[in-house]
Amino acid sequence: EVKIEVVIPEKERSKEEMSPNGKASPLIYKVNGTARHYHLEEHPIASNPYHNPKDVVEASVCHVKDLENGQMREVDLGCGKALLIKESGEFHAVGHKCPHYGAPLVKGVLSKGRVRCPWHGACFNISTGDIEDFPGLDSLPRFQVKIEKEKVYIRASKQALQTQRRTKMMAKCISLSNYNLSSTNVLIIGAGAAGLVCAETLRQEGFSDRIVMCTMDRHLPYDRPKLSKSMDSHPEQIALRPKEFFRTYDIEVLTEMHVAAVDIKNKTAVFKDGFKMEYNKLLIATGNTPKALSCKGKEVENVFNIRTPEDANRVVKLAASKNVVIVGASFLGMEVAAYLAERAHSVSLVELEEVPFKKFFGERVGRAVMKMFESNRVKFYMQTEVSELREQEGKLKEVVLKSGKVLRADVCVVGVGAVPATGFLKQSGINIDSKGFIVVNKMMQTNIPGVFAAGDAVMFPLALRNNKKVNVPHWQMAHMHGRIAALNMLAHGMEISTVPYLWTAMFGKSIRYAGHGEGFDDVVIQGDLDELKFVAFYTKSDEVVAVASMNYDPIVSKVAEVLSAGRTIRKRDHCCFFLFFRTGDMSWLTGKGS
C-alpha cells in the first residue's frame, strides 16, 4: 500500500486560512505610521499534523504497479484531489492544481524532480512542493508517501486538498520599535511582481530585519497582466496577497510615494515630497512607463493608457455600446481589443506595422491571429498612424489617421509601447544604457555595491542566449529577478538561468511562448494555422531559440524544460521534437548537448 499523508504544521494551516485565493487588499503602512514590536516566528513541525481527526480523509486510489516511472496521475479522494507521481522508482504526492491560475498539473511536464505547469510554466519540486520557477507566489501542499502492501492509499487534510496551495514559512521582523522611521535595512522601490517576490524571498530565507516597499501606485501588489485580460477586475479581486500577509510578515508598504532621486554615496532615497529614507540594500523594480501619443489633441478626455485597475475599469464602462479605437497592436492593445469586442459597438485597431505581432511571432502567425480578430468584428487599419484626436465638448469624438481615414471614437486606448521608469536615476551613478534600462549582472547587481535591479526596467545576461544582455519585460521573468536579487542580498551567489515564458489570452484562446526569439531568421510551423492549432519553432541559424503554440499544450512547457536542462534543439530536429511531444517520451532530456 502507498499511503500519502499531508504534513502541514498548524501555523502553516492558519496561513492558508488567511489567504485561500490571494484576493484581498494588503495593509498600507504610511510613513508616519506607529512602530510596533515583533519577534522572530518559530515554526515547529508537529509530530502529529492532524489535530482534528474530522479534517482527515483516507482513500484507496490505485495499485502501486498502475504507475510507471515518469508517470503522473490525478487521484480523487472524494473531498479533493492530489497529484500522485512516480519518478526513479519513488512515489511523491503534491497538490494537483497550479496555485497561479489553477492549471491541472497532471497535464504538465515531469522532468528531473519537478513538474512544470502546462499553461504558464511555473515549476514545483515534487519532493517538497516548493515553487522553483514562476509565475505565482505559493507552493504546492506536500503529502507524505508510505508503501504498504501493494495498494495506494492517500491520507490527507481536507483543508489542504481544498486550498491546493501552501505559503512557505517565513521569518518576521525582530523589532521595529528600535528603528528610525527614516531608515531601513532593505528598501524596495516598486511594488510589482519583482518587488514582492524579493520581499517574500528575504523572509523565506530567514531575514528578520526591516523591509520597506514603496510604490507610486495607490494599491498594493496586484496581478498586472489582468488589467488587459480581465479589464473589469477590481483591485481587491486581483491583489497578490491579502492585508494580513503584509502585517504578519512585517513587510511595510508606502503607497503613492514617488522616489525623485537616489543618493548612492549616502545610501538614501529622496522622495518627491522631501522625505528621505536611508537603506543598507536597495532593489530598483520600477517597471516601465507607457508611451503617450504625440499627435494634435492628445489631451482630450477619454484617451487612456491602461496603467491601473481604475484605468481598465473606466475603459470598460465607457466602451459599453460605444465606438472604441485602439492605437497599437501590442500585447496590451490586442488583449484590450479582444476583451472589448463583445462589449463595444465597434472596435478599430490602428497599427504602424503590416501585421500584428510580426516582430515577435512572425508574419504567418500574426496573420492567423489577425484573421481571428477580424472574425470577431475587430477592424484593422494597418501601416498608418494617428495624426489628430478631435473632440466635441472636451470629449473624444474622432480619430484622424495619416492615411486620411476618420474613425468615430468615444474611447481611445493607447498601447504603443513603454519606456523604462528610470529617469530619477540619471544623476545617481547607477549604470543605465542609452535606452534607459538599468544594466545588471547574472546576480541582478548593478555597478553599485548593495544596489540591485529587477523587472521590466533591466538589461540582464540571458543564459539561454550565451549571456547576451537582453530586456525581457515578462511577468514570469520579473518574479525570478526578484528572487535572485533577494538571494544575492543575502550573499548566496545565485545566478539567473531561467527560460523566459509568457502567454497572451484573446477570445478564449491562449498563445504560449518560451525562449527568446529576438533576431530569429525563420519560423517552422507544425499544425494548422487556419484552425488555430499549431506550434511555431523560431530558429536562428540552425538553433531553435523560441517556440509558440496555440491549442497544443503542453508543448511550450516541454520546450522550456528542454532548454532549461541546457539542451539545444536543432532546426533539423524540430519534427523529431514534435514526435516526442505527441508520444510523450521525454527520456531524451537526460544529459546535456543537442
Automatic annotation (TrEMBL):
Gene3D superfamilies: 3.30.390.30, FAD/NAD(P)-binding domain, Rieske [2Fe-2S] iron-sulphur domain. GO terms for cellular component: mitochondrion. GO terms for biological process: execution phase of apoptosis. One of its GO terms (molecular function) is 2 iron, 2 sulfur cluster binding. It is found in: Mitochondrion. Its main location: mitochondrion. Residues 59-154 form the Rieske domain. Keywords: 2Fe-2S, Apoptosis, Electron transport, FAD, Flavoprotein, Iron, Iron-sulfur, Metal-binding, Mitochondrion, Oxidoreductase, Transport. The keyword Transcription does not apply. InterPro entries: FAD-oxidoreductase/Apoptosis, FAD/NAD-bd_sf, FAD/NAD-binding_dom, FAD/NAD-linked_Rdtase_dimer_sf, Reductase_C, Rieske_2Fe-2S, Rieske_2Fe-2S_sf. Pfam families: Pyr_redox_2 (PF07992), Reductase_C (PF14759), Rieske (PF00355). Belongs to the FAD-dependent oxidoreductase family. Induces apoptosis through a caspase dependent pathway. Reduces mitochondrial membrane potential. This is Apoptosis-inducing factor 3. It comes from Stercorarius parasiticus (Parasitic jaeger).
